[in-house]
Specification:
This protein is mainly alpha-helical. The protein has helices at residues 2-7, 21-24, 30-46, 56-80, 89-100, 111-122, 154-166, 172-186, 219-229, 233-239, 269-276, 302-309, 311-322, 324-340, and strands at residues 247-248, 257-258, 279-281, 290-292, 299-300. Helix 7 (154-166) crosses helix 8 (172-186). The termini are far apart. Its EC number is 1.11.1.5.
Length: 358
C-alpha cells in the first residue's frame, strides 16, 4: 500500500480553485480508487462494534452466570464449615426423644439405657493419662464394646444408629452423650447443659477394661474409680442417683431387678429407697445383691449399699433424700462434667440448654 500512495499525483488529491469543482474534477485514476478502498478498509477495521439491546436470552444468561457464581462460593464455604456446625441439634434432640418410648422394650422406655450408654461412653476418662472419655466414642468398637460393664449397650447403639445415618455430620460421641441428656430431661429430670464438637476415634484408641465401676465392690473401689476421673464425694453421690432409672438384667450384668417402683421416672427415689428400706441379701444362685425385706421387689447392689454405710457418702445421700431440688442441681452439674471429660471442644462450640418437649 505504501508504494501505491507514493505514485499518486498530487493534483488528484488537491481540489481545483474554481467555482464549479464538480465540473472541473478529473476522473479518478486507478491509483485513487486503490487509495479509497484502502482507506475504507482501515475505517471498517478500527470501527467500534455496535451495541445491541439485550434481549430475554441475554438477561437469562446473566442471571444464570450469577447463580452459578453464587453456588460456587456457597459450596466452597460449606466445604470449609466443620461437620459439627452443619447439624441442627434441636432436631436431633426431638428425634431422640421420639425414640424413647417403646412398650415392647423393658419397662416401656429406652431412656434408662440411653443414660447408661452416655455414662459408660464418658466414664472411662483418666485424668493422669488424659485418655478415655466420650470424645472418641470408642465404646462402639471392640474390645471396649465387649467389656463386661458394657453388656447390653449394643441395644442403645442400634436404636440410635438410624439418627447417625440421618444426621451424617454428627459424631457418635455427640449422639451418644446427647441421648443421655435427652433421656434425663424427658424422663422428668433436670436440665443438663451440653456442647457439641466431639471427634470420633477408631478401635486402636479403646480404653482398657476395668475403668468403669464394679457393682460388686465397696466404697474404696468407688472412690478409686471416680477420683481417677476427677470427681469428689459429693459429685459421686449425685451421679449414683441415676440408679433411679432402669433395672438390672441377669443376661447383662448378672444382677436382677429395679431399684424402685418407677424405673422410667427421674426422681430422688434411689436415695429414699436406700435409706427407708431394710435391705437383706437375696437368696438365689446369682451374684450377691440385696432386696427390700418388705416386698423383695426392689434391689440394691453392693456398691449401692456402700453409700448408706460410708459416713461421708451418707451425708449426701441424706441430703438428696430430703431435697430433690438440691439433688437435681448437683446431678445436672456432675453429669454435664462427666459428659465432657477429656473432650477438646472447638473454641466456638456453643453450650445448649434444651427445653424438654414433655
Amino acid at each position: 500500500m505504501s508504494s501505491t500512495l507514493r505514485t499518486i499525483p498530487r493534483v488528484a488529491l488537491r481540489a481545483p480553485a474554481t467555482a464549479k469543482l464538480s465540473a472541473l474534477r478529473p476522473a479518478p485514476t486507478s491509483s485513487a480508487r486503490v487509495l479509497a478502498r484502502a482507506y475504507s478498509s482501515q475505517q471498517r477495521q478500527y470501527q467500534m462494534p455496535r451495541t445491541r439491546k439485550a434481549g430475554t436470552g441475554g438477561i437469562l444468561g446473566v442471571l444464570a452466570a450469577g447463580a452459578l457464581a453464587g453456588w460456587y462460593f456457597y459450596s466452597k464455604q460449606q466445604d470449609e464449615t466443620p461437620a459439627w456446625k452443619k447439624v441442627n441439634y434441636q432436631n436431633v434432640y426431638k428425634d431422640i426423644a421420639d425414640l424413647l418410648e417403646d412398650e415392647n422394650y423393658d419397662d416401656g422406655s429406652y431412656g434408662p439405657v440411653f443414660v447408661r450408654l452416655a455414662w459408660h461412653a464418658s466414664g472411662t476418662y483418666d485424668k493422669k493419662t488424659h485418655t478415655g472419655g466420650s470424645g472418641g466414642a470408642t465404646i462402639r468398637h471392640a474390645p471396649e464394646s465387649e467389656h463386661g460393664a458394657n453388656a447390653g449397650l449394643d441395644v442403645a447403639r442400634r436404636r440410635l444408629e438410624p439418627l447417625k445415618q440421618k444426621y451424617r455430620n454428627i459424631s457418635y460421641g455427640d449422639l451418644y452423650t446427647l441421648a443421655g441428656v435427652v433421656a434425663v430431661q424427658e424422663l422428668g429430670g433436670p436440665t443438663v447443659q451440653w456442647r457439641p464438637g466431639r471427634s470420633d476415634l477408631q478401635a486402636d484408641a479403646c480404653t482398657p477394661d476395668g475403668r468403669l465401676p464394679d457393682a460388686a465392690q465397696g466404697a474404696d473401689h468407688v472412690r478409686d474409680i471416680f477420683y481417677r476421673m476427677g470427681f469428689d464425694d459429693r459429685e459421686i453421690a449425685a451421679l449414683v442417683g441415676a440408679h433411679a432409672l432402669g433395672r438390672c438384667h441377669t443376661y447383662r450384668s448378672g444382677f436382677d431387678g429395679p431399684w424402685n417402683a418407677s424405673p422410667t421416672a427421674f426422681t430422688n427415689f434411689f436415695y429414699t429407697e436406700l435409706l427407708n428400706n431394710t435391705w437383706v441379701p437375696k437368696k438365689w444362685d446369682g451374684p450377691k445383691q440385696f432386696v427390700d425385706k418388705q416386698s423383695g421387689a426392689f434391689m440394691m447392689l453392693p456398691a449401692d449399699m456402700a453409700f448408706k454405710t460410708d459416713p461421708r457418702f451418707r451425708t449426701y445421700i441424706e441430703l438428696y433424700a430430703r431435697d430433690q431440688d438440691t439433688f437435681f442441681n448437683d446431678f445436672s452439674a456432675a453429669f454435664a462434667k462427666l459428659l465432657e471429660l477429656g473432650v477438646k471442644f472447638p473454641e466456638d462450640a456453643p453450650t445448649y440448654r434444651f427445653k424438654p418437649l414433655d
